[in-house]
Each structure stands twice: as C-alpha cells, then as structure tokens.
Backbone:
C-alpha cells in the first residue's frame, strides 16, 4: 500500500514537474525551446512503459489535453499525440522491455519525430527546423530518466 502511494505520488510529481518545465518561459538568449519540447512526452511514455496498469492511454490523453489548454493550442492536438504514442508503446511494450536503454532512447526519438510530424500536419505554422534537435533532446532525456527513475521504480515494484 505504501509503495503504491509512493509510486502514484512520483508519477504525479514527475508529470507536474515536466509540464512546468515545458511551460516556464525562458529568456530568448537561451533558445532552449526545442530542447524542452519532448520532455512531457518522454515522461508519459516512461510511465506507460514501466507502470502500464497505473498509467495508460487515458492519463496520456488527459495530460495532452492539459498541455493543449496550457499552451492555448487547438484542443486535442497534444492529446492525440500522447494517445497515439502511448498506444504504440503499449503495443510494443514486451519488445521494448527487452531493448537496451539506447534502443529505447531511439524509440523515444522516433516518437518525438512523430510528434513533430503530427504537429506539422495539424498546425502548418510548426517548422521542421528543430525536429532533429527535439528528437535528440528526447533521447537524452530518456537516458537521464532511465538512470534516475528506473532504479527507484524497480525497487518499489519488487517490494510489492
């Protein structure tokens, strides 16, 4: 019971933190927009992959809807992206769990490219200039997530 509460709080805290990190405006001199963009997608996919019973397509849709509302984007844009990414991850979950961390990072980079393509189709004002930078940022963030959160999640799941 205590581990379930700790996992739930960690999921909630990590989702809120990455949403805030995506939404907080930074000075233009830093030009970090493309480096920050896929963080929420990566954290949602992390939880969908490692806690599929607690975090699923519904939560991914809801988080995407919140991001749309916070960004004043057309409602459902990021919800669609997060839903499709979560569904693809759940479909390939057994295979992804056998992959190395680098291969999983490449999966996240591919999902980040998918995010850019969907945004480009739905919002033509989105440019392709930062697509590769965004994919690289997603892969690097996945590596950081895996080395920071994965051991903690595994220790909580083993004691259940």
Residues:
């Amino acid at each position: 019971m205590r581990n379930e509460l700790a996992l739930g709080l960690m999921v909630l805290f990590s989702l809120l933190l990455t949403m805030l990190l995506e939404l907080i405006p930074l000075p233009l001199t830093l030009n970090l927009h493309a480096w920050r963009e896929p963080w929420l997608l990566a954290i949602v996919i992390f939880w969908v992959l490692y806690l599929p019973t607690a975090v699923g397509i519904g939560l991914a849709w809801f988080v995407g809807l919140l991001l749309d509302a916070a960004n004043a984007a057309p409602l459902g844009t990021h919800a669609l992206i997060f839903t499709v990414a979560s569904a693809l991850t759940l479909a390939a979950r057994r295979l992804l769990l056998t992959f190395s961390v680098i291969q999983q990072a490449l999966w996240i980079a591919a999902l980040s490219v998918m995010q850019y393509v969907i945004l480009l189709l739905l919002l033509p004002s989105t440019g392709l200039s930062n697509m590769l930078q965004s994919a690289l940022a997603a892969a690097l963030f996945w590596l950081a997530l895996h080395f920071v959160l994965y051991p903690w999640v595994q220790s909580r799941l083993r004691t259940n």
